Structure formats: C-alpha cells, structure tokens
Amino acid sequence: MKLKSLLLTSVFYAGAVCSAEAETLKWARAGDALTLDPHAQNEGPTITLGRQIMEPLVDRDMKGGLVPGLATEWRPSESDPNVWTFTLRDGVKFHDGADFDSEDVVFSINRAMTEKSNYREVLASVAEVRATGPYRVEIVTKGPNPIMPNNLTNLLIMDKGWAEANDAVDVQDYEGGESTYAAKNANGTGPYKVVSREPDVKTVLERFDGYWGLGQFPLQVTRIEASPIQNPATRVAALLSGEVDFIQDVPVQDLSRVDGSEGLDVRKAPQNRVIFFGMNQGDADLANDNVDGRNPLSDVRVRQAMNMAINREAIQKIVMRGQSEPAGVALPPFVNGWTAELDKVPATDIAAAKALMEEAGYGDGFSIKLDCPNDRYINDEAICQASVGMFAQIGINVNLDAKPKAQHFPLINNLESDFYMLGWGVPTYDSEYIFNFLVHSKGEAYGSWNSTRYSNAELDKAIEALASETNIAARNESIGAIWDQVQEDVLYLPIHHQVLNWGMKSHVDAIVDPEDSPKFKYFAFK
Amino acid sequence: MLAYIIRRIMQSVLVLFVVGLVAFSMFRFVGDPIENMLGQERTTEDVVRLRADLGLDQPFPVQYWRFLENAAQGNFGLSYRQGRPVADILIERAPATLELALVSGTLAMVLGIGLGVLTAIRRDGWLANTIMTASLIGVSLPTFLIGILLIYVFSVELGWLPSFGRGETVMLGQWSTGFLTKSGLMSLVLPSITLGLYQMTLIMRLVRSEMLEVLRTDYIRFARARGLGERAVYFRHALVNTMVPVITIIGLQLGSIIAFAIITETVFQWPGVGLLFINAVQFVDIPVMAAYLMLISVLFVGINLIVDLLYFLIDPRLRTSKAGAH
C-alpha cells in the first residue's frame, strides 16, 4: 500500500514538475492537532487540520471573509427575531458515501453544546436547533443574535450515522479519560479525507473525489503530508533542504535566509492577533509594587503616561525586525469595529509622559512587576525586555518576570498579576467577542479574561445589549461608543498586531490566512 | 548473598518511591494544565469543573497517593494533551527511542573501543594525536549544536540525509521499526551520530587510559619476553583486562543514552519518548511526565542493581569482606 502510493507520487513528480495539475504538499508547523474530534478541542492547529476533513455551515476564505460552506444561504427569520434559517447544500456526500442532510447538522450542533465540548461557550446563545426539512435548519437563540453565523465558522459537521455506528456520539472526554474512535478517525464532507494518522508524527490526507466543490476551488493539492516539527531551526532546515514544501511559523531571524533561497518564498500578512499589556487598575493597592496604600495604575494619568512611553516603532524595528504592525487599540484589523482612527499609534513623548506622572503625584516614579510569557507570542519576552527600558525613562522601574505560558496564564486568571502581557485573536471577526472576554467586568458569564479589575456598569449594560441588537447600524454605533470609552480610560496598552510568515516553495500559490489556518482547497501550483 | 540481593532490591524500591515523590512535587511548579486544555472561550465555571474532574483540587498527598495506587496497578492515566492512555502512547513511542539508542550505543562502543585501542598502541603517532584532539570537540560541543551543524551540512547544503523524523516505518506487531526501509535507515544516521558522539569519545578516552595502564604491567612484559606476537599481546592479554572497568561504564552509559535522547529527539523531531516528555512539560501533561520519569528511574535503578550484582559475582573480595563483617 505504502509502496504503491510512493510509486504513484513519484510518477506524479516525474510527470508534473512545471505544469502542476496535481501534487503532494508536504506541510510542517510547530505543533500537531490534538485530536480529530471536531468538538473536543477549540485550538488553532486542531481546527486547521479538522477543517480540511470536515466543514462548517458557514465558512471563511483565506482572506477571512464569510463564504457559504455546507449552508448556501442564511438569514434571520422574518416572523421571529430569535430564529436564524439556514438553507443547506443539496447533494453533498460524506467521505464514506453517506448523504449529508439536516439530521447531521442538528446532531453536530447539539453535540457541540454538550458539557464536554469546548464549543459550548461559542454556542451559549443557542436555545434549540431543529430541522424543518431535509435541507433546512433553524437555530433558535435566547433573544435575537445578529451575528449567529460568525459563531459557526469553526463548528465542523459530522455524520450522524457514522458517529452512532462508531460509538462517537459523545465528545471525547479528556477528563474522564476515554479515547474515542473520533479522536483518531473522521468522516466529513471536506475536500480531503484521512489516509493515515499518527499523532505527533505524521498525518496523510488525500483529495476526496466526491467533494461538492470540485471545479469551484483550485484543489490542486491532491495529497497532504502533515508533520509537526517543533524545533524552529529544524523546521526551517527541512524547508531549505526541500523535504517539506510549506511551513508555518518561520522564525523572524530566518526570514531573509528563506526568502533569499532559490525557489523559496516568504509570504506575509497581518494576523488576527493583537498583543497588549493589561494593568490592575481596580484594586486599592497593588501586591507587586513599592507604593503603599495606593494603586498608581488606578490613576488614568499614569496609564496615559505609560501609553506614551512605549516606543512601538522601536519594538517593531528592533525586536520584531519589521515583522509587526504597531497598534493603537487592542483590536486586530479586519474585525468589525476596527477603524484606522482607533488604531492610530500614540506618539512616543517622554516629556509629556513625565509631566503626567508628576501631575499624578508619581514624579519619583514607582516599581512594579511585569508578568510575561516566554513561549506563547512571537518574541514575547524580548518585547517585555524592550518595554522595561522604555518605562524606566518615565521613572517606572519594571521588574520583568518571564515564564512559560502554563505558569503565566494562571497568574492572569487567578488575579495574581498586576501588570501582564496578553494576546488576543477574534475568531468571530466582531468586537463583541473582545468586549465579552476582555472589557466586561469579570464574572460568571462575562469577562473571564478581564484581569484589569476594571468595572464599568454602564459599559457592561451596553456590551450585554450588543448580543440582541439586530439593527446593524445602531449596533455598530454602540460598538464605536464602547471603544471610545475603553480608549479614554486606557484600559489596555496596545503594542502591535502580529504578522504571520509562511515559508513555501515558490511554485506553491497561496495567500496567508489571517488566522494562521491554511485552507488547502484554495492552494494552487504555478 | 541472598540477603545482600534482597537488601539492594529494597533500597531500589525506596529510591523509586523518593523519585516519584520529588517528581510529583515538582509538577506543581511547571504550571497549570487547565488553561492548555480549555480553549480561549472557557468560563470560570469550566475551569472549576475540569480541575475537580482531574483531581487537581485535592491536596498534594492525596494526589500523590492516587498516582501511586494507579501506578501500582500499571495504570498511568490519560494524557491531558492527546486524551489517550499514557501506557498506549509510551508503547507507541518507545521503539523510536530504543532503536535510536541501540544504533548510537553500538556506534559509540565499536568506534570508541577501536579508536581507544588505536590511540593507546600508537600513542605518539600523528593519527592518534589528531584523533585525541578531535575527541575534545565531541566532549565539549553541546548536543543540540552538533545536531544543528549536522543538519546544516548534510541536509541543507548537501541534501544527502533527512533532517527530521523517522522516514517510513514498518510495523512488526506492536513494534514500529525503521530498520527495514531505506528512508528509515537514512533517517537514523544523523540523530544517532549526534546522540552517540559524546559517549563515543568518553569510551575512547577511557579505553585508551586503561589500555596504557595495562600495557605497563608486568605480565604484558612477560608476554612480550615469551616472544608472543604483537597482536596476541594487545588483543588477547591487554584488551581483555582493559574491558572490565569499561564494561561497567558502558552499562551505566546505556541509561544516559536513553535519558539524553531528549535533546537529540527535539532537534530531529524524532518521535520517541524524549520528545514526548518535552511536549508534556510544555503542556503540563502531568500523567505523561510522571510515567516518563518513573520509567527512566526504573531503568537507572535496574542498571545499577545489575552492575552491583555482577560485581558481587565477579569480585571474590567483596564477598569475603562482607562475610568477615558479620
């Protein structure tokens, strides 16, 4: 079997060096998907692999725009504002030949709403899913939800019959510790089907000949061989030596090396991820500073001064070697609510910043601890180190404490950090998502990542109202007003938007996806 | 004799117990697995629920006791990262590490002994001096650097050998082997050189100094006086006596080869238990970390025990002194 496929590939190679109609693509990134179960892990690499094999109702193309997936049309119901109607694609087949219909959709969405699913929160507004015909589905929400389709783009559809036959009705239970059939096997409607999978070693996919999109998408990659290569130097070496055709996460120090090599290109695009600092501005006194009885960060003038002290251009030029977009707001571009005006980078002005510190009564400065991850964002620790020097210029003596993400994030979530770095991507491409997690007061249902102790009752009300505001113009206006308030209060200190770098052989024709999630059906060969 | 063996085994069990305790108490400083297991969109409620499900909300002694209870029954729980039984993952990953260790161990032994004898016999020759100088490089360069250099020369510049992975493997029952395919064998070359280089220079220098020592002894002089040929003197008389301490060291180094495989496996993306452990540390995959550390300590304790017992059998002085002490 293996020998046969090897022979086949070599035949392909022999016959298709230039006029590539059909080719194998060897792909490497730092980490492997954790599981093939589409609802068990809401995690980048896992979704990326899953969506080659299975598909959502509403998809995104490589530019991040909404496109039809397994649904051809979706609209809010005219009679009931709490209902979204989806028209499903007719004549779609699963890899095992089963027909796709509304039963599978209802099954998959219900499965994703169970307790063990990692997609429960994304679907928190869903009250009920019902099939109103073989190719019609209605999703009933708890109150109107104008952006329901945005919540479905990572929600992949499984075959109900296959799941029942293979005892995969329940989501893989990490905690209870069962390994289900769906963790290592998958039956989807997607452009590629699984040939073999060895977790952390190699996953082989082949183009599905019964795919509904044949002829609508390039689909020139006939076979995908995915291997994780964790060590960045080895990953780059594998590309340079020609052992792989396409790598994600090219380290910034190797960009020129890859780009300068014959037959290799680096492709870049801004990523849907913004990096910023959060500050404890709500507590009366800080645990990790040298000021007693007062909290310097609770004074907006201090936060403004800090915002002016960060030299974002220097960070971009020196730390990131040009591979970042300085930011003025903690909101990635291309997300609804983003404007160039909001994202205008604050001018670095040490004199004005010092004056503000003086005015706030901190002319002599203060000391504070900055918590920073060292294995999560691009050059995260180096950014923090550069910032230490910048804050020192206005008298703030920062003690940097950098550690692995597994230790960093618990500090944020247990409210043990007064000053921390965080990065955020917005899968729904809408500001509401950021407000819910990062701006709303921390509580049971909202603000689970807001460790600034910032709490503004009016803002909270406005944020909660967004979920059911169906008038798009009014909703956008409200989003704008919330951002203005956030900026005025200097809730976060934005640093930059990350830039993605993909390295590939020059004849691979692909653009960079803003979510770092290649969709191989769009790949072609020059 | 029997009393001695029983005492040594009891000591070994105690060592394992302590290793488990130390390892387990260290996991709390590695970080919190919960954030890695739940996505960005989790609520506070999810965190509490998962913590309770995994038993991470229990006090440390309770957690450790549970681990011991399960481990005693051969149950190491489930990997937090892959959601599969740890035992299955270890069985899947062990062949890669063992094959790599076997090849680099053999390489280190054959070359180490060969070059050691050569440098001892021709101790002032230019060749011996060159080899001795070169061996300093093997001792002093860190493993990951050797690996990257080899990848740079043989994969990137020359394009002869693969830079990552095991190539095609063949399943022999539960065992995946890379020995039966061309790409599998090619993939073994660079990682086994990287892993074996340090051991090779160590063995070489040891053999050389032991050999020089032996060659100065009286019975070698007598052998020469009897008119025995060079070959018989060197290989029948000298080498055999050289090997006693060397074998001990080789035995102890076996454990190191498997434990040191971590760095080599990370550089070459070699899908063995070392890479598994590194991934587990980054993810705070406690069940995998615990199982791996226990496995490695069993290995070391076992090797030490065997070496001790062999000494006991080989060296009559040990036995008499023990008897005399009672």
UniProtKB/TrEMBL annotation, chain B:
The keyword Transmembrane applies. It is a multi-pass membrane protein. InterPro entries: BPD_transp_1_N (IPR045621), MetI-like (IPR000515), MetI-like_sf (IPR035906). GO terms for biological process: transmembrane transport. SUPFAM superfamilies: MetI-like (SSF161098). The chain crosses the membrane at residues 12-30, 100-121, 133-154, 185-207, 246-270, 290-314. Pfam families: BPD_transp_1, BPD_transp_1_N. Keywords: Cell membrane, Membrane, Transmembrane, Transmembrane helix, Transport. GO terms for cellular component: plasma membrane. It is found in: Cell membrane. The keyword Transmembrane applies. PROSITE patterns: ABC_TM1 (PS50928). Belongs to the binding-protein-dependent transport system permease family. This is Putative peptide ABC transporter, permease protein. It comes from Phaeobacter inhibens.
